[in-house]
Amino acid sequence: MNNNNPTGINGYGVKNYPPDEELSSALHQYAKERLTVPQRLERLKLEHGLTIQKSRLLQLNNQFKVPSPRKRLPQDIATQAVLEKVADDVTQRNGVGTIGTLLGNEGIILPRDFIRKVLATHAPEGLSQRFPGANRVPRSALVAIGPNYQHHADGHDKLNAQALAMGGVSLPIYGIKDQWSSLLLHLVVVPNNRLATTIGHVYLDSPEKHGLIPITFVMDKGSETGFIFGFQTGLREAYAPDIDAEKFPAAQHVRSIHNTPIEGAWHWFLNTLGFNIKDRIRQGYQDGVYNPGNPVHPHLFNWLWPKILQIQLDRFVEYWNNHKIRYQKDKPNMSGQTPRHAFALPKAPAADCRIPVDRSVVDALRGQIPISRDASMRWVDDDFDQAATKAYDDIGRPSLTSVAMGWAIFEQMCPLIVYQPSEFE
To answer: Which of 302, 381, 418, 419 has the fewest CB atoms within 10 Å, i.e. the most exposed one?
Structure first.
């Protein structure tokens, strides 16, 4: 790497630096999580085998232009950045920490005091609404051995057909979360979160992505979990046969209301993004932009809105995994760190319980599901997909990152789509 010491040799030994692009990405990620200097040094050692001193870390942060609260933006630009997040938050549920993390994910690091002052000046109604105790939610203590001891999974139906009440269109969600670290491992919008074939593929997405399974996979008692139970049990027996199955079951069914780790994630999703998204989606119906009786509209909804929602889910996962969980002295699970950092570097007495699995075995299990992953995740048929893709290309492929622009894109695309639905629809 280019620096004043090209040999990498100094008083602390030879340094094997990763490629600049990889190192820059890591340092920016640590900034998003607002990690302390010692935590950043720990992560560099764990993830890249790089042991350096604080002074060298400062040099690297400067070299790769890593944002910091000390590198202040001009006040007008910083204020505008905060107000844009306030404008996106229709229900005014997001507080100082949430807005700070959302901005941090975009590379804008602002001091908490500055954000608080902007909110107090320009959005005081939100502050009173979020006053501690105003909307108290009962909580229960969770106890785990460490990351990957238990993964919890469940579906989220706050955007299903009944909730949207728009003539049958639905946006079901399914998520998987690590109990101890609170890391969100997977969050995806699916055509149907009550189908065993679809959720079987969603389960396999996690070990495919992370290369591991937990000691115990916890899910509700729905029929959609059939493949999960078999796959998790088989993988545990193959890769960790010495674990006592009676004391630590491979898979466990619980009532949804008792599946508190993932249920808690839905609460935060709704407070951070969910209510805003639902309001925006229903606005198209209320304003007459969406008509369920139009033969094209339901298909275009199913083509467009899952894409928009998935981008928002990815943003929420990034926010959640990078946000710092409030320190609680008596909390048995992790607190005072970001979920991503705790998942990567659990502190004693916690221990990483991961069970590594091979990608080839995960691929083989996919072959046991009678419907392919592509088919189980398909929202529209091939003919409509081609027609909608052409219309999207014709309007210049606008960005789908803004929920507020969803219906404007819908209106632009709709007149350009030539499609004849099947007589059986």
So the answer is: 418
**Which residues on neighbouring strands pair with residue 175, listed in sequence order?**
154, 187
Residues 6+ apart with CB under 8 A from 346: 146, 147, 180, 181, 334, 352
What are the tokens at 366? 């996919």
Kindly report the pTM of this predicted structure. Answer: 0.73
Alpha helices by DSSP H, 332-405: 339-344, 359-366, 373-376, 382-394
- What total of structural domains would you count in the chain? 3
Residues 89, 56, single domain; the answer is no
Residues 250 and 188 in one domain: yes
Confidence of residue 135 (pLDDT cuts 50, 70, 90): very low
Whether 294 is covered by a domain: the verdict is no
What are the structure tokens assigned to 254, written together?
């619980």
Helix, strand, coil fractions of the chain, as percent rounded to 5: 50, 10, 40
- On whether both 182 and 257 belong to a single domain, the answer is yes
CA dihedral 245, 263, 340, 104 (to 10 degrees): 170
d(CA 14, CA 142): 43
Give the range of the structural domain holding residue 110, as residue numbers without chain letter: 75-129
Judge whether 49 lies within some domain.
yes
* Domain boundary pick from 34, 63, 92: 63
Cβ 174 vs Cβ 190: under 8 Å? yes
pLDDT value at residue 75: 65
Do 100 and 34 lie in a common domain?
Answer: no
User: Is residue 308 a part of any domain in this protein?
Assistant: no
Let me know if residue 222 belongs to a domain: yes
Phi-psi label, residue 49: left if phi above 0, alpha if psi -120 to 50, beta otherwise: left
pLDDT over 90 at 256, yes or no: no
Q: Is 237 in the same domain as 349?
A: yes
Q: Distances in Å between the alpha carbon of 108 and those of 10, 68, 86, 122, 215?
A: 34, 8, 15, 19, 38
- In eight-state DSSP terms, residue 274 is I
Residue 233 in contact with residue 167, Cβ under 8 Å? no
